Each structure stands twice: as C-alpha cells, then as structure tokens.
C-alpha cells in the first residue's frame, strides 16, 4: 500500500519536529520552507532521510498531501495556504498533529503576556515535585519531536493564538488563559474580538473532567467568557477580590483554595518573581499545582527558587549605580507596561523596532511617572516620537544595540535603570528578539 503524504510548511523547530513524528507514524513526509532552513534543522532532515526543499514551495509536491502541518508563523492569507484550502486539504498545527499520538495529559497556557514565564514556572513546580513532565509548544523542543522520541506522562505547553487557530480536535486537560490584550491584530483583521475568540479556543473540546483557569480581573477575558459555554471546572484568580474556589491576594499573601481541606498560602515577598503581573503568573501556576495535588511545601519551595528565562526582565549588570535590564522578549505594548510596572526607579527606556499596529496610549501614564528618556532602537521611530513627545523631554534615535546602550549610559544617573523593553518586533535590525537581547547584553558588558 502506498504511504499517505504529509506536507509540512516551515523548517524550524516545530516543522522538523512534526516531520520526525510523521515519519515515525509511517507517512511519506515532504517538508517545504519558503525561506532558508537553519543548518541544524537541515542536518536533522538529512540524517533522517526526510525529503525537503528551501527558498521555494513546489505546489505540485505539497498538493499531493492528505494533510498539511503549517508553522504558526505562516498566515492564512499566504498564497500556498489558499491553494491548499481550495483543494480542501486539511491544514493543522504541529500541536494538533502531535496530540493524536500521545496519551500524555496536557497543561496548556496561553495569554497575550506572561505565558512563557507561567509555562516555565509550572514546569519547574511539576518537575521538582517528581512528575514525569515535558516542556514544549512555543518554548523548548517541539511537542511533536518529544512525542516521537520521549515518553512523558504530562506536558506543559505554551500555546500562542497562531497555534490555536489551527487546532480542532485538540483537548487540553488543564487550560490556562492569563489575559487578553491587543497583540498581533494584523492577523485578526484588526479586531480584538477575533483575537479574543482565538484565545478562547484553548478551552474548546474540554469536558466536565477538565479544568479552565483564568484571570477574574481581565476585562476582555470576562467579556469573551460571557459568550462561551464551558463544560470544564472553572478556577479564577484575582488580586482585587476574594475568590471562593481559585486564588486571590489578601494582605500580601496569595491564597489558593482548590482543596478546601488543604489551602495554600504564601507571602508575595517570598516569591522568586516580583511585580504585580508576576503575582498573577504565580497564582495561575499555583492553581495548576494544587489541581494536581502537589504538596504545599513543594509548591512553596519551587515558587521561591524559580529562575526566570533569558530576555524576560533579565538583570544584566549594575554599572556606576545603574541597573541594566534586558526585556527584549517584550514585543508588544502590554509587555513593556508590565516591565515598567515592575521597576521601582527612574528609567531610561530603550524601545522600538517593527510596530505591529501598536496603540501606545496605555503606556503614557507609566512613561510620565517613570521614564526620564526614551532611546529609540529601530529603522522607523516616527510613531514613538508622536506618541511620547509630550511626556518625555529626551527622545533619541539609534540604529544599533551598541549605539543605544552608549547613549543610555550617558543619559542615566546613579540609581536609574536602563531598560530594554521594545514593545515591538525585532526584524528590522535583528534576526529575532534573542539576537536583539544578546547584542544589548554584549554592549552593556563593553561599558
């Protein structure tokens, strides 16, 4: 019998992982990338004898497929996707495909902000408690590659809205929705409602045995929940009001009441992650841990010794009494708001890059209160100047990380913080946000 073809679009982490799993499941696999495939992934495909092409899409080869797995970065408006859909060939995400071939349970975390930190913290708590757990999704090794090569009982998955758009039968055992704020609106016809509906797909297919965890303080989440019928058990978290079953903040203590006979309490001063937004992230992870009956002492220990990821409010150095913080992962306005909220000193803010239709209004109050100067780092900084010219005395343009750090160094006074938190994508001057963060760190180390 002839093997059925699976075509995979995109030769990055998720694409190559999907190719590995599809090959293991006995499909005829063809991987196509319209750009260049990074060397390490090309070598993996060659080693496994998986057919691939780069810098082109051979339509005839792709359209032989019974199913197409696409990288989350490829929009539905791409010509090749339109051709595939016209032929009524199903298009799914790597996550959707991988879930078919594992019995592991999944904890799926989404939200406009905080999802990487919450995913990492949840994984840290579960691993420390001795669970056989994998980490995948938008972070680490691809879910499909791990399903092909490992045997975990649990996965903690960071899930973006782009992944959710191509998920149909996938079911999350535990779903976490942290918040909904305007991001990637260019992919959603510039409608927040469309983006919110996409985020709610995290809870689709859930049954009464499953759990949905959400922020009771987030207006957009509450709005979209009104129009969604969920079968799962709901556990909200809040820092504004007392929650009967879920998590809340009272006199600087987090309280988690899932198992009412064994409540969890922890002072926010003991949390490894500081700042208001991280109280939310810690609550969400804590609810997951309590749902899984992890011991309070173990949760407390993990929440107290967690180390955050690179490029997310990462302390780089203190030079002449000035702190340098790398928050290059802040690619939207809301992330930058959170970064400013967590810094208690005056700030020299390095921001800019590729603007995804940003609305800077929500930053204005925070900028007025905390920012002494803005150093723009991007090819086109016009919108930043227009947004903040009345709020900040100094706005300077720079075109490299080195130049931005040099200027910030001269603008900063003892006791200030130089914060790279761009609110924009990085593709105008850098390969990606990691490259931007690494160049910033290198420039700080040269001071």
Automatic annotation (TrEMBL):
Q: Which reactions does this protein catalyse? A: UDP-N-acetyl-alpha-D-muramoyl-L-alanine + D-glutamate + ATP = UDP-N-acetyl-alpha-D-muramoyl-L-alanyl-D-glutamate + ADP + phosphate + H(+)
Task: Give every Mur ligase central domain span.
Answer: 109-288
Catalytic activity, EC: 6.3.2.9
The broad enzyme category this protein falls into is: ligase
Biological process (GO) annotations? cell division; cell wall organization; peptidoglycan biosynthetic process; regulation of cell shape
Which residue ranges does UniProt annotate as crossing the membrane?
none
Q: Which UniProt keywords apply?
A: ATP-binding, Cell cycle, Cell division, Cell shape, Cell wall biogenesis/degradation, Cytoplasm, Ligase, Nucleotide-binding, Peptidoglycan synthesis
Q: What does this protein do?
A: Cell wall formation. Catalyzes the addition of glutamate to the nucleotide precursor UDP-N-acetylmuramoyl-L-alanine (UMA).
Know the name of this protein? UDP-N-acetylmuramoylalanine--D-glutamate ligase
Task: State which gene encodes it.
Answer: murD
């Amino acid at each position: 019998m002839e093997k059925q073809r699976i075509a995979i679009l995109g030769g990055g982490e998720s694409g190559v992982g999907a190719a590995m799993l599809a090959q293991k499941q006995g499909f005829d696999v063809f991987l196509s990338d319209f750009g260049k495939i990074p060397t390490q992934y090309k070598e993996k495909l060659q080693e496994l004898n998986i057919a691939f092409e780069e810098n082109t899409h051979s339509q005839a080869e792709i359209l032989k497929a019974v199913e197409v797995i696409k990288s989350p970065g490829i929009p539905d408006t791409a010509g090749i996707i339109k051709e595939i859909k016209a032929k009524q060939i199903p298009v799914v995400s790597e996550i959707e495909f991988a879930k078919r071939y594992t019995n592991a349970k999944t904890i799926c975390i989404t939200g406009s902000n905080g999802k990487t930190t919450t995913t990492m913290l949840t994984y840290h708590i579960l691993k420390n408690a001795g669970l056989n757990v994998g980490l995948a999704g938008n972070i680490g090794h691809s879910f499909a590659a791990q399903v092909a090569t490992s045997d975990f009982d649990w996965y903690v998955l960071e899930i973006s809205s782009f992944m959710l758009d191509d998920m149909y039968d996938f079911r999350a055992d535990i779903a976490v929705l942290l918040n909904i704020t305007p991001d990637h609106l260019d992919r959603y016809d510039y409608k927040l409602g469309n983006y919110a509906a996409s985020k709610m797909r995290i809870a689709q297919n859930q049954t009464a045995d499953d759990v949905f965890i959400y922020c009771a303080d987030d207006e957009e989440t509450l709005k979209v929940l009104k129009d969604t019928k969920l079968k799962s058990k709901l556990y909200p978290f809040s820092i504004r009001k007392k929650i009967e079953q879920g998590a809340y903040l009272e006199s600087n203590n987090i309280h988690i009441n899932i198992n009412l006979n064994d409540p969890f309490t922890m002072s926010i001063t003991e949390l490894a992650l500081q700042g208001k937004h991280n109280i939310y992230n810690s609550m969400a992870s804590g609810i997951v841990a309590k749902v899984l009956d992890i011991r309070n002492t173990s949760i407390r220990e993990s929440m107290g010794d967690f180390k955050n990821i690179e490029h997310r409010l990462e302390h780089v150095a203190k030079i002449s009494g000035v702190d340098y913080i790398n928050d290059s992962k802040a690619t939207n306005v809301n992330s930058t708001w959170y970064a400013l909220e967590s810094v208690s000193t005056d700030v020299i803010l390095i921001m800019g890059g590729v603007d995804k239709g940003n609305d800077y209004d929500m930053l204005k109050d925070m900028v007025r209160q905390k920012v002494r100067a803005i150093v723009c780092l991007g090819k086109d900084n016009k919108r930043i100047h227009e947004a903040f010219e009345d709020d900040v005395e100094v706005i300077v343009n720079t075109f490299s990380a080195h130049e931005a750090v040099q200027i910030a160094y001269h603008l900063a006074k003892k006791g200030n913080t130089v914060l790279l938190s761009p609110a924009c994508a990085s593709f105008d001057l850098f390969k990606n946000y990691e490259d931007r963060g690494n160049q910033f760190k290198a420039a700080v180390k040269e001071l």
